[in-house]
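Weekly modeling sync, notes
Attendees: S.R. (lead), two postdocs, one rotation student

Agenda item 3: backlog of single-chain predictions. S.R. asked that every request posted to the team notebook include the full sequence so nobody has to chase files. The rotation student volunteered to paste the first one in as an example of the format we agreed on. Action items at the bottom.

Example entry:
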Amino acid sequence: MTAFVVIKDYEAGGLQPRAAASMKQLAVVMIILNINYGRLHCSYTMDIDEPHTYTPPKHYFQTSSFDDIEQDSDDDAIARNPLDRGPYFDITASRNVTALVGNTAYLNCRVRNLGNRTVSWIRHRDLHLLTVGKATYTSDQRYQSVHNPQLDDWSLKVLYPQQRDSGVYECQISTTPPVGYSMTLSVVEPLTTIIGGPDLYIDMGSTVNLTCIVQHLPEPPPVIQWTHNGEDINYDSARGGVSVITEKGDITTSYLLIQRARSGDSGKYTCLPSTANPTTVHVHVLNGEHPAAIQRGRQTRSNCALLTMLFLLLMAISGGPVRPGVR
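Predicted structure, as returned to the notebook:
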């Protein structure tokens, strides 16, 4: 306002020209200062009147743990923190268990964070409740619950299992709703066979190869023994040329090899696995004979024996032989 007054006075002739020019310059400077002050004031007041909103950079949302938690579902959060989700099963144990007939079977169920919950065993075949906690809830006392607190194991023990016990069993935790872990029990009976039995015909001087196969065992038999006519075979005897080779696995095979077969090698050979049933084969060492002739001879003797039995049976039914002159 002062600058305008000074200029007015100059125009009226009240100031010298040089002084008037200085006053005019001063007025221009004051006007510029007033304009800048006004801008600063407007900017300041606008910041106060309008709300402040901060938008973080995009990468913040990608790295922020809080943002990850908001986007995760409850199930994902539970999966990341298993200790917060209550009881759960340790699924490292195998779901398939194979047991031998008559040998005790164990179905192992490992439960973490059990707390005050209870573990039960159920048989799927008939939905029969077998055990609850450590107690047996069936009249079949072959089923028992075994708890190992050090390992958090709740095992179902099956005594003297039979093939009919094969099937699906479920380990169940008493949550709401209950959760279960199913396992399959296979009760098998070992099978021992000798290829080519029950009779083998070998030419004299050739090699006898008896192959014994053992299967349906949880593990290979520790020992497989061979006998000849009920006596153990001596592989170090003076006869020589007798050896055995055994290959163990899911299916165990034992080979009995007899070189340069002779008539004394004929007889009954038995394969005896230590954990399975034995089986027998009859070896016939032929000295120029034909197996068919031997078979026919055996069949003829068998037919004669059968006819004799039938004749005796008919005589017994008729009351004995008819005597001449007797009516």
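Discussion: group reviewed the output briefly. The first strand starts at residue 88 and ends at 89.
Action items: rotation student to repeat for the remaining queue; S.R. to check formatting next week.
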